[in-house]
Amino acid sequence: MDLQLSGRTAYVTGAAGGIGSAVVRSLAAEGVHVFAVDVDAGALAAIDSEGSGSVQVHEADLSSAEGCRNAAAAGTAHFQGAPDILVNNAGVGHMAPFEEIDDEEFVATFELNFFAVVRTCRELLPGMRAATGGGSVVTISSDLARQPEDLFVHYAASKAALSNFTTAMARSYAPQIRVNEVCPGPVWTPMWSRPGGFVDTLTATHGLSGEDAVRAFVSERGIPMGRLGTPAEVAAAVTFLASPVSSFTTGASLGVDGGTVRSM
Asked: Signal sequence span per UniProt (predicted)?
C-alpha cells in the first residue's frame, strides 16, 4: 500500500529511543524527511551514522519550556516552515510503589510526558494549521492511560492526561490537522533492558532471572498475545496514522498492546 508520505516532513521527539528510532526509520523508509529530537546525544549519533540523508538529528532537553521552544524553532528553520507531521514520543517512566514516589518525581514525569507535548504542540500546531494541505499529529500514550497498574501510578496519570489532551487538540484543530494517539502496551525497549530498568525491577520483585521475570510479568498482566511488543509494531501504527491513508481518522486512540486493555 502506498501511504502517500513521500516528500513530507516530520518532527519526531524522543527519536533516539526504542519506539522513537523505529518511528524515524519507518517514516524515512516511506520517503519522509525527519527532524529527530532527543536528549541522548550518543543514541542520536547512532541514528545519524546510519547515513539516511532524509534524517536530521537534533539534541535537546524537552523537559523545560525553553528546550521545547528552541527545538521547535530549530525544526521549523530546518524545514523552512512547519512540519507536515508531528510525532510526540518523548517520555520517561519506571516502576515504583506509590509511597516511594515523591512530588519531585511526579512533577518530573509530567514535565516530560505531558507538558513537553503541550509545549511542542503550542509551538508547531499554529504553523501546521496555516500551511496548505493540513497535517497530522500522532502522540504516544500508553495502555496504562486506560488500565492503570499499581507500580506505574505517576506514569499512568501523565499518560491519562495526555489522552485527554489529544482528544481536545483533535477537536480544536480539525479539519486542518488530524490529532491521534497510539497506546502501546509493554514493548521491549531500553526502558526494559537498561541497568535499573523494568527487567531489573521485576527480577528483584519476583526473585527470578531476567527472562523468567519478564515471563512472569506477561502472565500476571494477562497479555493475550503472550509476549512483549516490538518498537517496529508501534512504529507501523504511527506511520499509518501520520499518513493521508488515515485521512478520516482524528481523535482516535489506537491500542498496540497485545490485548492488555479489556474495556471497550
From this structure: none
Do 110 and 207 fall into the same domain?
no
- CATH number for the domain harbouring residue 74: 3.40.50.720
The residues that bridge with 37 in the sheet, in sequence order, are 13, 58
Cα separation of 153 and 161, whole Å? 12
Total Cβ atoms within 10 A of residue 142:
28
180-225 pLDDT, tens digit per residue, is 999 999 898 877 777 777 777 778 776 777 788 888 888 888 899 9
Contact 12, 89 (CB under 8 A): yes
Nearest 5°: CA angle at 246, between 243 and 252?
A: 115
pLDDT tens readout for residues 36-78? 999 999 999 999 888 777 999 999 999 999 999 999 999 999 9
Active-site positions?
155
CB neighbour burial string for 228-255, b if at least 16 within 10 angstroms, e if fewer:
bbbbeebbbbbbbbbbeebeeebebbbb
8 Å CB contact between 38 and 14: yes
Q: Name the 3-class secondary structure at 171.
A: helix
Are residues 197 and 114 part of one domain? Answer: no
Q: Please tell me the distance from the alpha carbon of residue 18 to that of residue 56, in angstroms, as a whole number.
A: 18
Say if residue 85 is in the same domain as residue 167. Answer: yes
Buried/exposed 27-55: b ≥16 CB within 10 Å, e otherwise: bbebebbbbbbbbbeebbeebeeeebebb
Indicate the number of domains in the chain.
2
